[in-house]
Amino acid sequence: MDFSKFKYDFSDKRKKQILKIIKYAKNILNINIKIIESSYLEESKTSAGGYSCATNNKSAYIELINSYHGLPTIFILLHEIGHHIDYLKRGLVTKEEVAYEYYPENINEAPCPEKYSKLIIHAEDMAVYYARELATFLDLKIPEFSLLVDEFKSKEALKIILKTGNLSTEDFKYIRNVSRKKAYKKLKKKTI
Length: 192
What we know:
Layout: H1 12-27, E1 31-36, E2 49-52, E3 60-65, H2 70-90, H3 94-100, H4 114-137, H5 144-164, H6 169-191
Helix pairs in contact: 1-2, 2-4, 3-4, 4-5, 5-6
C-alpha cells in the first residue's frame, strides 16, 4: 500500500490496521482497492468510497477517497468490505441494485423515492453489520465509542441524503452531535 497517495499522514498504528484490512480484502476476499483522488468526486458530498461486486471476469473492487484521516479511512474500508461480505452471503439482490440507481450521488439531485430508500437502507445496514463483524474478526481494537459513532453517523447521513439529495454543513454538525449522543446512550446501557 502506497500511503503517499493519501492527503494525510497516518500513525503507525493506523497504517498497520489499514494494511491488515487490505491484506484480508485482497488475499481472502479477492477485492481490489483503488485509491481515488478527492478532486475526482468534487461534485459529490455523499460518497467517501464505493463498492462494485465482481462481474464476469472482473474482480470486486473498492474505491477509497484519499482525503480522510486514519480512523475514518478504516471505517470506510470496513463498510465497503461489509457490502462485499453481504454480497457473498446473499448474492446479488436485484431489487437493491435497481434501488441504487435512484441513490442521489451528487449535490442537489432529486431525493430517492421511498420504495427504493427502504431497500438502500437495508443494504447499508447489512454493510454496517458486517463491517463490525470484520473489525472484531480482524481484532482491530477500535474503541467501541468510535465504532458506534461511525455506525450512527452512517445511518443518520443516509437518511438525510435519501430525503434531500445532499448534506449541508448544518447536516454534518447535526449528524455528528446526534451520533455522539446515541453512542453515549448505547454505551451507558451496556454498563448498567
